[in-house]
């Protein structure tokens, strides 16, 4: 049997996921050839800018606590591509990933050939992976699919499926070249997950998380014009209270149907508490249509089991090392707030590597008050900004003595530990690695001794 490395290399040989084909028909054609695998289980579809993966993991955990078998599709991954396709809250086993890919490969090639005859690009990496995910879920089989949109929503490959519940996490400007340069434009594109592609399918129920005013207005206009039932953060559901707890926080959530008090959420940050409230509202819509409250004990069990690798993840102590995949200004602002809320470091040293196509100044402006000094470097991604370029930008936000450039992630981590030790309060110092998923993945592997 071919191994995972070979299959992943074949997928990577396709058009990369940051080079999107604005279409749905190619993904739909492949899914239909495989027996409409995209309709094999009901779907909870999640779109937004920040918090999609965390919210997906929370929804997965809540549904699992209700004895449902869950398939979850998220992106990107930290260590292995198998992380993107999860069954029973675990990455699909490598042998299943490879076996099912080989089973569907002839159908992917058939669609590739049809597209080539039309002078169009063959299935992209993300389109092929989306079809593979649906095939894995149909093979399992699962009771429900938690589906994270990649880029946008309207023409995202995941949108071949009709969500029974559609979820919108916070929307902000990111991928502006593809999605538009305002929250309203981006919200209208992401609202495309509300479209129905299966004639007999029911209208979706909708849960909308906290949004900027522009994005909220655009979403509400679309939802109301379609006559859909929706609950909104702040009116239909929301946080009642939160307080710090050991390795997380205690939250209380109110929905239209119920009140859930003193829930342990084992991740930090106000934004993660908001994601949890949104996840509860979405699961309530899915399981009861929003008409009845969920069992409080099962909700507690579900949230207590949540993990969010690479999102405010503590991987070392003394000095404490926190990994967070914030890659845009909104995500960085959430990280900065969480650091002040949950960690209270005596000195905070940032390790930063970002992609050149991101709003770097926006990200730096969100982090400048949170980091006492910053070590700039680069990840292994070909999209990474070079350390010298990032250093030049960082010097516009920090004093010269508080900006250090290192050529690679290993050197940056070693320097960060040295800087923490030099403070004289190693136990109270914090190192925060951020800037992209690629940044966090590489640091995580180094710190956990996986490379």
UniProtKB/TrEMBL annotation:
Keyword presence, ATP-binding: yes
Top-rank taxon: Bacteria
A Pfam family it matches: Mur_ligase_M
Residue intervals of the Mur ligase C-terminal domain: 310-436
Keyword set, alphabetical order: ATP-binding, Ligase, Magnesium, Metal-binding, Nucleotide-binding
Gene Ontology MF annotations: ATP binding; dihydrofolate synthase activity; metal ion binding; tetrahydrofolylpolyglutamate synthase activity
Catalytic reaction annotation: (6S)-5,6,7,8-tetrahydrofolyl-(gamma-L-Glu)(n) + L-glutamate + ATP = (6S)-5,6,7,8-tetrahydrofolyl-(gamma-L-Glu)(n+1) + ADP + phosphate + H(+)
Matches recorded under Gene3D superfamilies: Mur ligase, C-terminal domain, Mur-like, catalytic domain
Annotated GO CC locations: cytoplasm
The protein's Enzyme Commission number: 6.3.2.17
Domain Mur ligase central stretches: 46-283
Signal peptide, first to last residue: none
Keyword Phosphoprotein: no
InterPro entries on file: Folylpolyglutamate_synth, Mur-like_cat_sf, Mur_ligase_C, Mur_ligase_C_dom_sf, Mur_ligase_cen
Record family assignment: Belongs to the folylpolyglutamate synthase family.
Database matches in PANTHER family: DIHYDROFOLATE SYNTHETASE-RELATED, FOLYLPOLYGLUTAMATE SYNTHASE-RELATED
Protein name: tetrahydrofolate synthase
